[in-house]
């Protein structure tokens, strides 16, 4: 190993954190979570991207010691609980800086606090969400959204489609697309989560997984052929299972992930089980990105009552995934 390679592998893990919507809970959750992260990951280096004055104020006037702030100035002063489209480009600028740093190798992973999509759109920038924007900025043709709980055997749910109207889901599913999605999930579980032989349970699209074609043919024409092709590649992906009965301990006890066909098929179950302690991970990117499993919580911003549990879990996951990637 060269000296340069050795120094890169020996340096502390560098984690960037974007603080998201300035009117939301992101700034204060970041401060609270980092107070815990310093003790959990003393050898990691954390860089927080945001307005220094805002972050210090939301941290109660005292920013956590030894945590670097990369200052990005607000366009206009932010008020807790209030949205202002004038700061939409500020929020996007934080994300751009973190992505650029991760792509260049400056950061080993990025953690994103929640943002408000409407604020960015109101600022004149078309924006669907973190997942789609990350894919576009890194020139990644396909990414996969996965939400996960915590613990030794966490519930993980990945999505075959993300932010689409329900009427568009069927036409968005294809054999090639599902095989590619399963390949991304399988690779990520191996490379970033340390699972040697991941098992991915796959839902059907229709009620009762189509009832042998009586309730829809997507299972017969698209999902089953995709699973057969994926299994031929060595991916352990049984299914398709009816989504209304799959999420039971007797099925999930031997599963590492569930692939659901659309956003509100799998995520309500996961969020019911893990909300406030779960994480969102974007799979398939050339960089590592984790996030909280909730929104901006404008009603809690500035009150000191927001729970940092999900942000702590997102930071933990980012560090753990970066360690697996570095050791691979």
From TrEMBL:
Q: Where in the cell is it found?
A: Cytoplasm
Sequence positions that bind substrate: 130-131, 271, 280, 289
> One GO MF term, please?
NAD binding
EC main group: oxidoreductase
Give any Gene Ontology cellular component: cytoplasm
Explain how, and how many, cofactor molecules are bound: Binds 1 divalent metal cation per subunit. Can use ions such as Zn(2+), Mg(2+) or Co(2+).
Q: Name one GO biological process term.
A: pyridoxal phosphate biosynthetic process
Which residues participate in a divalent metal cation binding?
Answer: 163, 208, 263
Pfam families per the record?
Answer: PdxA
What is the reaction catalyzed? 4-(phosphooxy)-L-threonine + NAD(+) = 3-amino-2-oxopropyl phosphate + CO2 + NADH
To which pathway does this protein belong?
Cofactor biosynthesis; pyridoxine 5'-phosphate biosynthesis; pyridoxine 5'-phosphate from D-erythrose 4-phosphate: step 4/5
Q: List the PANTHER family.
A: 4-HYDROXYTHREONINE-4-PHOSPHATE DEHYDROGENASE
Record's family?
A: Belongs to the PdxA family.
Q: What is this protein called?
A: 4-hydroxythreonine-4-phosphate dehydrogenase
* Organism of provenance: Caballeronia cordobensis
